[in-house]
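protien #1 (seq + structre)
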Amino acid sequence: MGKLLEICAGSLGSCLAAQDGGAQRVELCDNLEAGGTTPSWGMLAVARERLEIGLHVIVRPRGGDFLYSAAEFEVMARDIDLCRRLGVDGVVVGLLTADGDVDVPRTRQLVELAVPMTVTFHRAFDLVRDPCQALEDLIAAGCHRLLSSGQAATAPEGAALLARLREQAGARLTVMPGAGITADNIAGLARATGCREFHASARAEVSSGMRFRRTGVSLGAPGADEYARRETSADLVRQLRAALERA
């Protein structure tokens, strides 16, 4: 089995750049500054039409913690139904209890609703109190994949735990490292963890094409530059793929 590179994409342009750079799959998110929330229907529909590679979609109704109300859970369920009807390949979820455990009953409900899509449990896992037990909970809930940094700031820093989780999971679930992965460290991370799938953003600064620029007005966070954004770079994706293939 070869190695797989998934790119976290925050726009349609980033999805297409990931595909052009040789990624085998994208995780499509909105609002990456808050860790990713569910994209719009239009974004999902056009991405599905334009992408020939795998398309996974984050299902997260808001930023902040992963303790969701009944109303927020209903939003997640409806978003999963929409993803299934659009032909999305997989969804990415993360639900915790107030005590820092995986919310197994509601995760299982979403897994069942998602069929035939696969389900990845995202980095909410990195906030659980007992990662080994949480992994067993994810398997019991029917999840297919875990995205994790190994409960560290970056996946290379969490490599030891990621290796233990991969060994514990065996063939029951795929452990996919993510966070802080670059072309310079992906090969070493692959060797250290034994994992076969990797998640990276491969983003670079993109300047606006606006010629007229109003200064002193910010529509986002105070002091934010409205004329610059970060998008996936096809060149950075190519570098990641090349480094991963050499691992």
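ok now protien #2
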Amino acid sequence: MNFEAARIKMVDNQIRTTDVTSHTVLSAFLSVPREEFVPAAMKPLAYIDTDVELSGATEGRRYLMEPSPMAKLLQLATITGGDKVLEIGAGTGYTSAILSSLAASVIAVESDAALATEATATLGRLGYGNVEVVTGTLEAGYASGAPYDVIFVNGAVETVPEALLDQLKDGGRLVAVVGFGNASRARIYTREAGKTSERLAFNTAVKPLPGFRIAREFVF
């Protein structure tokens, strides 16, 4: 299979057609070999217009996000070449590699130790030297590396914890899909003078990350 041709078709037919115009984002998707970050049996399907289930996860089902919403979320984050980025939910490292092409440095948190090990190996083999994969609780982020210019939440969540928002530097942005299924929306949170503002961006549906549930209260 000609993966380079499939990559170009993905960008032209799936990403450009959904209002993604950022040259840097488009270039990153053209440069990163998506087929290297999916299970071997799924390589022929690496560029299809859907989420790809990842094998080897020990925390339940995990997915590589569909290209179009991923690209729209990355464009929303307006990442620049000098930015320090925190990724929540590295999976096998594909989004980490895209972020590596956009930012100065990336810390990618992954709660599933098997996926973190795989991501570290693949990113190292492909030469993405400005990415560090760490194993930890996704909701907690990685405070020891804070503050960050951008936090990218790589999957749908029910709520965005204050612990993550507190790791943004002044002027920093957090991008996440909040809600599940067709009721979910992409949102961007901006930190200014210690306070966070929130803006709705677009409707989308992506697979959820583990955790990030709102605590339920019992009423007696």
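The chain is about 25% helix and 25% strand.
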